[in-house]
Amino acid sequence: MIANPVPWPNGARCAVAFTFDMDADSILHLAHHTSADTRLAAMSMLRYGPEIAVPRLVEIYKRFGMHQTFFLPAWCMERYPAAVEAILQGGHEIAHHGYLHEHPNELPSEEELYWLQRGIDVFVTMTGERPRGFRAPTYKFSRHTLTHLVNEGFVYDASLMGDDVPYLLENATGCVVELPSHYALDDWPHFMASRDFNYFMSIKPPRQAMEVYAAEFDAMWEYGGLWIAVWHPFLSGRLARCVAIAELIEYMHKKGQVWFARLDEIASYVLQLTQAGTWAPRVDRLPYYPGPIPELGEAEPTLAR
Ligand SMILES: [Zn+2]
Question: Do the beta carbons of residue 120 and residue 131 sit within 8 Å?
């Protein structure tokens, strides 16, 4: 079912990474710059992430002896240093998720680079290290993102959805490892409901959402894939959902032969296999198209109607 399954370490059947994007209220300021300060209910829902959920998640991981990856907009690191400290003390990785959750593919290349570098500066100041991984806010990876990531020394990206196993993103500048996920493993479709974002999903019972995640896990386990949850502390870190997450982790542990890892560990492992010639990842050359496809031409407005 997977053409090129990864020889995961120690005979593991699949790799598992619970990644949390701690967006906090960055997304509210970005969506409603001039009125975010007046939207106190939305603000409180989002602040629940760093203040209540992150310490809880770190505690759950500790219980299971797991080290995982958190993606943080750098502005959130500056605003919520206690959450940063709790994550680092738990032995987890913090990776780059924009400065204020800005959308790279809606910015000119030089502005995208400005925010990327401004975020890196925060990482260096607060953690003493440059980030190794990046996830584009709202998956909005641009035509220029790969070049900027290569030039800034990133090892991996986790924004795209092009495979069930790691692969490489390459252009004339260089390459990074892509650690893909999918909307099925995101928590917005299961749990997000907010008038301030004009986004209403019918909220799933936690165990029903876990059925989707568990089905994805079972398939990855069977065929040698990579399971990456793209979750948010303000959504999946709520109490009943955390109870269900702990049950899911228990299920995975009981099934066995699972490699729980941080994304930087998975990316390093992939590079190690590649360099040793043990396994060759598929390569996607970016961008996929040099511009809009020519076939539509002037017909586009008619077709779009
Ligand atoms: Zn985000």
Answer: yes
